[in-house]
Amino acid sequence: ASSSRGLGVVYKRQGPTGRGQLGERIRSKIMKRVLIIDDEAEFTRLLRMNLEKVGGFAVRVENSSENAMETAREFSPDVILLDIVMPGLDGGDLCVRFQADPKLQKVPVIIVSALVSNDETSQDAVAVSGDQIIVAKPVSMEKMLHSIEEALKKA
Predict the structure, then answer these.
(1) Tens digit of pLDDT for each residue in 74-116?
(2) Residues linked to residue 12 through DSSP beta bridges, in sequence order
């Protein structure tokens, strides 16, 4: 059964544990660090909870784009999930800053945005522009886990 919880986090229950095969494959690897940068606190809370539970990730959330660089440098993420439209610095500005920072320039960034619709993305609900992975909100956990796995493969 599919469930949807507020602000665009959609996930599917996959058996009694709620864990799908993809989540188990990722969980079996060393715990990866995911930084979520998005100004929607409820969205980030739900996404964090699901990534920790289903994906087995260590997750840090930053709801202020102004603090994102400092948080990213301190947390040293393996992948960054980044919203585009935020007050202050937008996701495009942050991407430029990540690329200019020697500590962060090789960290893959997945754009998670409502600016792209699920109709515009591929069957995996992932649009790729150059090396950039773009995921449309609302996003299912299966699609998010797939996107993270793909970004980590390329890193």
Answers:
(1) 999 999 999 999 999 999 999 999 999 999 999 999 999 887 6
(2) 2
Indicate yes or no: pTM above 0.85: no
Distances (CA, A) of 61 to 1, 43, 76, 109: 28, 10, 13, 14
pLDDT > 90: percent of the chain: 55
Tokens representing residue 3 in the block = 């469930």
The pair of structure tokens assigned to 52 is 């920790």
Better-scored residue on pLDDT, 78 or 17: 78
- Pairing mode of beta strands 2-5, 9-12: antiparallel
3-state secondary structure of 63: coil
Query: Helical H runs in the chain?
Result: 21-27, 41-50, 68-75, 91-100, 141-154
Phi, psi angle pair for 38, to nearest 5°: -160, 140
Hey, what are 15's tokens? Answer: 């058996």
Other Cβ atoms closer than 10 A to 30: 6
